[in-house]
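ARCHIVE ENTRY
Sequence with per-residue tokens
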Amino acid sequence: MSTYEINGTYGGSQTPCTIFVYEVCGAYWYCVEDSVNVNCTIDELIEGVDVETIDDHDTCTAQNNINSTEELERFINEEEEEEEPNIIETIYESWVNGQRQQMINQLENATFSRGEFIEYLECDDDEKLKIAIYLLNNQE
């Protein structure tokens, strides 16, 4: 996990801006200075990037404008603490416990974005990798 800031641009007129970045397990959470829009990508963010061209996989909105890497990191970590149990982890637990029918029922009712796999796939556990690939192949 690391935080850093880079210079970039946003909008059709490519307005110069400071971008705060918080990297976690290959996912790059970022926010333009003084914005409430927080986005996530798997693409590394480099100096001079135009945020309009970034392929976002997950977005959320902060209650207050973010003006530092510390505020971005705190927002992301608070969001993780407040979230409901992760549906992917719940399905994985059913897989590990041999509850295949329960897993199938959970899959049929599950909704999750591709972005939710970013951190999940960054692991050394073969079983987690198998279930993550299975889930990816069985979701729209």
Notes: The chain has a mean pLDDT of 78.
